[in-house]
Write a structure and sequence with these properties.
Layout (H helix, E strand, L loop, with lengths): L3 H5 L27 E5 L25 E5 L3 H5 L2 E3 L4 E7 L9 H6 L7 E8 L2 E8 L11 E2 L4 E4 L10 E8 L2 E3 L28 E8 L5 H6 L6 E2 L5 E8 L6 E8 L2 E9 L6 E8 L9 E11 L2 E12 L1
GO molecular function: metalloendopeptidase activity
Pfam families: Peptidase_M23 (PF01551)
Organism: Thalassococcus profundi
Length: about 325
């Protein structure tokens, strides 16, 4: 996704002083694999397909950054600090975009502001970093301000084109996206051309395509097509949460949790005995006597390997 506001902002603010290629620290106050994880990488495929820098599946068509996701939207209220990945000069800021799920109605309202509340920093030699989807009212820097690596910029939110709590982080040079995991390659995957991270985050090719609620244990074909997903249920329906994974390995685990208007309704962890290219697992509960209370229900599916979080997806359903 190209953030249209980037080109529209003035490029004439205070000149940066650094001249070298920036090496990047993790731009978020979290621990990868414990309190956050990388959801998507830069798309290295110039076609309508998508591949991350390893030629894996962890990207989206046209995605121009690294998405570092929190474990739930509740973390937005707690406050997770976004930090400058390298020293530089604040070149542009925007605040005032609401933190809300991205819908067609929201899209029309924020056209040109898909990056949401954001900060852009210039690092010299044409390099810039861009920090998107920050929480409204959390920005702590101003245009023209000099910042050091690790300086707080704001907090993670869900503003702009976002449906989950995450930071969209982009490295640019002369307005062109650079993948910090594969800095010397342009729209090419599989070539190890060098990392720009001070400590390069570990990569695992396994992940989750999706998670969803259904009212019975679905078939794989229905999970793959999306036909299994239910947005509403009756009080007498069973509630089933499923996760659809890719490239799982023997011994990986899939954890399920779901809660409703009266709190948690189930929690279960399943071990994957035989990993494979695609598989799904499900967990759930039969309707209680008298039926489920009306209202919204939220589920989380987490894929883990040796206790490390590889991926996490959420789903919602409403009992009516």
């Amino acid at each position: 996704m190209r953030h249209g506001w980037l080109a529209a902002l003035a490029m004439t603010s205070a000149a940066p002083t650094a001249a070298e290629v920036p090496f990047l620290a993790l731009p978020l106050d979290c621990t990868l694999g414990e309190t956050c994880f990388i959801e998507d990488y830069v798309d290295a495929d110039p076609t309508f397909a998508q591949h991350d820098y390893t030629c894996g599946l962890k990207s989206r068509d046209g995605h121009q950054g690294t998405d570092i996701a929190l474990l739930s939207q509740n973390e937005i209220d707690r406050g997770v600090t976004v930090r400058a990945a390298a020293a530089g000069t604040v070149q542009a800021v925007r605040d005032g975009v609401a933190d809300e799920p991205y819908t067609a109605e929201v899209a029309a309202r924020i056209k040109g502001q898909e990056c949401g509340n954001a900060v852009r920093i210039a690092h010299g030699n044409g390099y810039q970093t861009l920090y998107c989807h920050l929480k409204r009212g959390s920005l702590s820097v101003t245009r023209g301000e000099r910042v050091e690596a690790g300086a707080p910029l704001g907090q993670v939110g869900m503003s702009g084109q976002s449906n989950f709590a995450h930071l969209h982080f982009t490295l640019l040079r002369d307005a062109e996206t650079i993948d910090p995991f594969n800095a010397g390659a342009s729209q090419t995957c599989g070539a190890d051309s060098g990392s720009l991270w001070l400590e390069t985050p570990d990569y695992a090719r396994a992940g989750l395509f999706t998670a969803g609620f259904s009212t019975s244990v679905p078939r794989l074909t229905h999970v793959q097509s999306g036909a299994a997903r239910r947005e509403t249920a009756r009080p007498d329906h069973d509630i089933v949460l499923y996760g659809f994974a890719f490239h799982s390995e023997d011994g990986d685990q899939m954890a399920f949790s779901a809660s409703g208007p009266e709190g948690e309704i189930f929690s279960q962890t399943q071990t994957i005995e035989d990993g494979m290219a695609q598989l799904f697992r499900a967990s759930g509960r039969r309707a209680p006597d008298g039926g489920w209370p009306a209202g919204g229900y939220t589920g989380h599916v987490t894929l883990l390997r040796d206790g490390v979080i590889l991926a996490r997806r959420h789903a919602t359903i409403r009992v009516e």
